[in-house]
Specification:
Largest sheet: 7 strands, mixed
Number of strands: 18
Distance between the termini: 65 Å
Radius of gyration: 33 Å
Shape: globular
CATH superfamily of the largest domain: UvrC, RNAse H endonuclease domain
Helix content: 40-55%
CATH topology of the largest domain: Nucleotidyltransferase, domain 5
Length: 657
């Protein structure tokens, strides 16, 4: 681990100007690239006290062996140079957005004499116009099949086109009217290109004008008694309308925009982009990507990239930079950058990003956060898609038997256990400023949650000692109960089974591994309680949430699991489930306390009648809305008591008598 002070440049030598900087490791490999309005201010922040740095920043500066910078004239130039260097050097500590798959697009080969329409995946090529991307190839083929009736352009490969030209007979699509058959000369090259041009105009968003034109032609044909042509045009209009219905109108003002949303945790980020053209969703793209390659376990982006604004900054520069490189069409309608980019949060240097995007588009681009109306609703939809994609990603990973087996094996190796921890229990504490203190105990067997084994605890004496005291109480109660149930065993053939009910006892089985949510103090107290109870066959670790460090009792330094480790991922899932279960119990306790306190002021109202009132009305809110007559209908509640309840609940909150 390098000492940053050994390569820290003198503050006076760093220019107070916009620029881009590179950190290099001992092998001269670039490990981080960043930009700054003021190089002096930004670089000085990296050489502060290590204990005050963000964990990922701390690892980066201790991995680096030198820093260098380049001064530029404007922030826009800094943005452009930063993008170029990230592409060139692929730094390990930069957040990187890469598609996890190649999304299908609809390609139109305008560089050929007879342009072809086809589904395409892969790098963009010169002279080809692309529409999309789409989430599924079948969606393109379905839309294309509808539109070929109106725009009978060539869809066959070069080999098929050449073969049918040689035999002088069109393919099946030519016979059924879904291809104009340029291979056999039914239309000229210019006529076929005109058909393709109309097709491109329709997909580019000029749908209404084309439908109106076809309707005018249909009426004209009808007036001229050309009924067959009128019927064909009528069917064409119907096909266009059906194709348009498949692309739902989300923005009624015909807006061209990309809508970007994120869902994230400490290690990964899910990105969703909806491409809206002419007010309709023309394409969707989404992926889940690692934030960094190998950060300090569980750390997030660095101090300049923390939060959604930092994710937006990194995404826009990389995504649109890549799109601009792929596109060779400079027409505004075909530009990869739309008029608007809607994001959940503006980055710090959003003015420079707007200027850069405007340069890529060749026209003004607006970067904004939607506040209300249809655009806000669409942003919420994209956000839900990002969260759902993230959840599905985690479920797929959790459901992978191979990954679960690898996680258990990695835990055994990393912690030096005698066997893989097939049963893992985790405890977490939840409270608000020391009130309504509760704890959870969740159980994972073979890497999967066993919700029937979950337990929850209302903390009694341990609350005075904070989280450490609460964890000590939970561990003591859990394993004291285990010892008591073990001592009651009478059926040696069926250990852990209650002979009266035939069901497993609540605390009959000890875990192989006990995980506590916290660092060294929490682990130490849990280990002390187990030693006090004489439990020696249960391993204890702590998972510190901020740094995702694994603490082992008696060890001065934590165990650092690789960020891509399946073992770390399993521990995070266990810890997060314990956190969720504890919070839900805490909210329930707090709600019950608040409800009970509201009824405590009613004289002569005991616990039995309180419970009857709440059971009858279902909630305190509905009880507040009830009349005296409705309250008095509850069994055991008389008129006078009903009046007292109604008067007490009708008082403004906070009024004391």
């Amino acid at each position: 681990m390098a000492d940053p002070s050994t390569y820290r440049p003198a503050t006076g030598t760093i220019p107070d100007a916009p620029g881009v900087y590179k950190f290099r490791d001992a092998t001269r490999r670039v490990i981080y690239v960043g930009k700054a309005k003021s190089l002096r201010s930004r670089l000085s922040s990296y050489f502060a006290d290590l204990s005050t740095l963000h964990p990922r920043t701390r690892q980066m500066v201790t991995t680096a062996a030198g820093v260098e910078w380049t001064v530029v004239g404007t922030e826009v130039e800094a943005l452009q140079l930063e993008y170029s260097w990230i592409k060139e050097f692929d730094p390990r500590f930069n957040v990187r957005y890469r598609d996890d798959k190649s999304y299908p697009v609809l390609a139109v080969t305008l560089n050929e004499e007879y342009p072809r329409l086809h589904v395409y995946r892969g790098p963009r090529r010169k002279g080809v116009r692309y529409f999309g991307p789409y989430a599924h190839a079948w969606a393109i083929r379905e839309t294309l099949d509808l539109l070929l009736r109106v725009f009978p352009a060539r869809t066959c490969s070069a080999g098929v086109f050449k073969r049918h030209g040689q035999i002088g007979r069109p393919c099946l699509l030519g016979y059924i009217g879904k291809c104009s058959a340029p291979c056999v000369g039914k239309v000229s090259a210019d006529e076929h290109r005109a058909i393709v041009a109309d097709f491109c105009e329709f997909l580019a968003g000029r749908t209404d004008a084309m439908v109106r034109r076809l309707e005018r032609d249909m009426l004209a044909a009808s007036e001229e008694l050309e009924f067959e042509r009128a019927a064909r045009l009528r069917d064409d209009v119907g096909a266009l309308r059906k194709a348009m219905e498949k692309q739902a109108v989300v923005l009624g003002d015909g807006t061209d925009a990309d809508v970007v949303a994120f869902a994230e945790d400490e290690l990964e980020v899910s990105v969703q982009v909806f491409h809206v053209r002419g007010g309709r969703v023309r394409g969707q793209r989404g992926w889940v990507t690692d934030k960094v390659e190998e950060p300090l376990a569980g750390s997030s982006v660095d101090a300049q990239e923390t939060g959604v604004g930092g994710l937006v900054d990194q995404f826009l520069s990389q995504f649109y930079g890549d799109q601009a490189e792929l596109s060779d069409n400079t027409e505004a309608a075909a530009s990869p950058v739309p008029r608007e980019v809607l994001v959940p949060e503006l980055p710090e240097d959003h003015e420079a990003i707007e200027e850069w995007l405007s340069g890529l588009r060749g026209a003004r681009v607006q970067l904004r956060v939607p506040q209300r109306g249809d655009k806000r609703a669409l942003m919420e939809t994209v956000q839900r898609n990002a969260a759902e994609a993230f959840a599905q990603h985690k479920l797929r990973r959790a459901g992978d038997l191979t990954a679960r087996s690898a996680a258990l094996q990695e835990l055994q190796d990393a912690l030096g256990l005698d066997s893989a921890p097939l049963r893992i229990e985790c405890t977490d504490v939840s409270h608000v400023q020391g009130t309504d203190v509760v704890a959870s105990l969740v159980v994972f067997e073979d890497g999967l949650a066993r919700k029937s084994e979950y337990r929850r605890f209302a903390i009694r004496e341990g609350a005075e000692g904070g989280d450490v005291g609460s964890i000590a109480e939970v561990v003591r109660r859990r394993f004291a109960r285990y010892q008591a149930e073990t001592a009651q065993e009478t059926d040696t053939d069926r250990p852990g089974i209650d002979p009266e009910t035939g069901k497993p006892r609540r605390f009959a089985y000890p875990p192989n591994l006990l995980v506590v949510d916290g660092g060294a103090p929490q682990v130490a107290v849990a280990a002390d309680v187990l030693a006090e109870l004489g439990v020696t066959d249960v391993a204890v670790i702590g998972l510190a949430k901020r740094l995702e460090e694994v603490w082992v009792p008696g060890e001065p330094d934590p165990v650092i699991l690789p960020r891509t480790s399946e073992a770390l991922y399993l521990l995070q899932r266990v810890r997060d489930e314990a956190h969720r279960f504890a919070i839900s119990y805490h909210r329930q306790k707090r709600s019950q306390r608040m409800t009970t306190s509201a009824l405590d002021e009613v004289p002569g109202l005991g616990q039995t009648r309180k419970a009857a009132l709440l059971k009858h009305f279902g909630s305190l809110r509905k009880l507040r809305q009830a009349s005296v007559e409705e309250i008095s209908e509850v069994p055991g509640v008389g008129r006078r008591t009903a009046e007292a309840v109604h008067a007490s609940l009708a008082k403004p909150e906070g009024v004391q008598t």
